[in-house]
Amino acid sequence: MRKEWNTVDILRHARHDWLNKIQLIKGNLDLNKTDRVKQLIEEIVIEAQQEAKLSNLKLPLFAALILTANWEAHPFQLEYEVINDPKVVNINDTLLADWTKSFFTSLHTAIDTFGDNHLSVSIETQKNGIRFFFDFSGIIKDNDVLQQFLDFNFSEQLTVKVLEFSQQELAIEVFMPLS
Prior knowledge:
Blueprint: H1 7-30, H2 34-56, H3 60-68, E1 77-82, H4 93-110, E2 118-126, E3 129-137, H5 143-151, E4 159-165, E5 169-177
Parallel strand pairs: 1-2
Antiparallel strand pairs: 2-3, 3-5, 4-5
């Protein structure tokens, strides 16, 4: 399911995304919808700022996973936000990326492929570590798959706390202390 991205693949997808954004702006300019153009530009600026914040965390494996997630064939749309000004954190990037890949795989298996599924990831650096909030909304068709994943202890370096779990929502908090 997970594709290994090479430089050409990444550039192709990034170019495609940018062309889509430019076409939206151009189309709205042609329709003389300047307010919508301003809104689109503001959204692009915010997205670029979030990409920079994510990249500045110095978690290259995790950042690459998040930045390319919507290019994968996941049955969910991912959005993310780095809540505060990022501080470089010294945590196990490999462990975090492996846990996140496993979570994506479990989620992929457990949810309705044709549902309107969204996963929001909020990232908050703290003095003693980093906290992640994974908030899924959509249709969960197999709770057992997700429960088995959540029950598995990946590492003592990673604390997972379930905040909400129903047929339409899964909210979890993941904390990793500084190494």
